[in-house]
């Protein structure tokens, strides 16, 4: 099991089963704490064949190099990171996506995950990825016509993607919650259960250059839905959208950059994919950039 030392205690994680164990009766000294964030997301590329208005990804073309990514992953792995999530853009459009996943799984102890729109998950791609992916996420922003109008792809094609991802690894469904999708959360949760998903991740819409954050009406509707939820699929919510929702945090002393960070497709480390400020990862490595970002955040 992967070992992580944190302010909360000793964290053990098995990437194959997804089992987490926190020995919170132990109180390690601060000098022993793992220096890496617990989780890191990496946008391998900004390229995507969808054009969702609420997408946070920059529209300028950028992609990361394989050796660059692997170097960062090995550095993070050695300093206590437990999981890496590849995204974009659409990560399956990175020309070396399969190789990056295989090497990340084979050369580190990190749990390897990725988030996809699902429309490129051919049987051939799924077969090539098997054994390298520990968890996957597929984006389902509405059902039927709502999905097709927001994402510009056939809903039937998405359903095929869900069937494909279920053959790859344990998986979850993501939904951007906005004024259109909030009314379809029951249908999406039913789809998650029928499709075999183990998690439904709620992503309350955040402001981008094209859209605003959800308003109070949508926020209240989401809070009401969560309070009344009786489905069998586990609910999760993004940290940015968790305000006023009933959440359980097993790592209360591990917040901010101790818990999570994001690397964009131009190699800039940020507190999240929506953060305007960041630190360019240079030759000194990702942890050097992390230290600069932490210092800048503390000064601010």
Order of strands, main sheet, comes to: 10-9-8-7-6-5-4-11-12-13
Instruction: Point out poorly predicted stretches.
Output: none
Counted by DSSP, the helix tally is 8
Order of helices and strands: EEEEHEHEHEHHEHEHEEEEH
Which outline best applies?
A: globular
Residue share in β-strands: 15-25%
| Oligomeric grouping of the chains | single chain
Largest sheet: 10 strands, mixed
Number of strand segments: 13
Describe the structure in your own words:
With 300 residues, the chain is an alpha/beta fold. The chain is built from 8 helices and 13 strands. The protein has helices spanning 66-78, 97-107, 123-129, 144-151, 155-166, 185-195, 216-228, 286-299; strands at 2-6, 9-14, 19-23, 39-43, 83-87, 111-116, 135-139, 171-177, 199-204, 234-237, 260-263, 268-270, 278-280. A 10-stranded mixed β-sheet has the order 10-9-8-7-6-5-4-11-12-13. The chain has a 3-stranded antiparallel β-sheet with strand order 1-2-3, with no helix packed on it. β8 (171-177), α6 (185-195) and β9 (199-204) form a beta-alpha-beta unit. The radius of gyration is 19 Å and the shape is globular. The relative contact order is 0.14. The mean pLDDT is 94.
In terms of topology, how is this protein built?
Blueprint (H helix, E strand, L loop, with lengths): L1 E5 L2 E6 L4 E5 L15 E5 L22 H13 L4 E5 L9 H11 L3 E6 L6 H7 L5 E5 L4 H8 L3 H12 L4 E7 L7 H11 L3 E6 L11 H13 L5 E4 L22 E4 L4 E3 L7 E3 L5 H14 L1
Parallel strand pairs: 4-5, 4-11, 5-6, 6-7, 7-8, 8-9, 9-10
Antiparallel strand pairs: 1-2, 2-3, 11-12, 12-13
């Amino acid at each position: 099991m992967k070992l992580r030392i944190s302010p909360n205690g000793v964290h053990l994680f098995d990437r194959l089963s997804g089992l987490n164990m926190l020995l919170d009766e132990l109180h390690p000294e601060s000098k022993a704490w793992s220096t890496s964030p617990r989780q890191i997301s990496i946008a391998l590329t900004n390229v995507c064949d969808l054009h969702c208005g609420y997408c946070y990804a920059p529209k300028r073309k950028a992609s990361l190099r394989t050796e660059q990514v692997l170097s960062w992953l090995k550095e993070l792995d050695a300093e206590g990171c437990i999981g890496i999530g590849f995204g974009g853009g659409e990560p399956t459009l990175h020309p070396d996506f399969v190789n990056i996943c295989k090497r990340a799984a084979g050369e580190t102890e990190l749990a390897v995950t990725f988030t996809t729109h699902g429309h490129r998950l051919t049987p051939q791609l799924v077969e090539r990825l098997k054994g390298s992916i520990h968890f996957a996420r597929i984006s389902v922003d509405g059902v039927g016509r709502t999905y097709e109008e927001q994402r510009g792809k056939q809903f039937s094609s998405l359903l095929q993607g869900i069937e494909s991802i279920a053959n790859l690894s344990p998986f979850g469904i993501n939904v951007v919650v906005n004024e259109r999708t909030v009314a379809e959360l029951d249908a999406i949760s039913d789809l998650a259960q029928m499709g075999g998903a183990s998690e439904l991740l709620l992503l309350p819409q955040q402001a981008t250059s094209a859209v605003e954050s959800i308003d109070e009406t949508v926020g209240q509707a989401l809070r009401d839905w969560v309070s009344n939820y009786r489905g069998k699929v586990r609910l999760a919510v993004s940290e940015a959208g968790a305000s006023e929702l009933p959440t359980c945090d097993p790592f209360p002393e591990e917040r901010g950059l101790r818990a999570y960070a994001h690397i964009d497709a131009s190699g800039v480390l940020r507190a999240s994919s929506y953060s305007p400020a960041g630190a360019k990862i240079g030759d000194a490595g990702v942890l050097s950039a992390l230290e600069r970002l932490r210092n800048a955040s503390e000064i601010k």
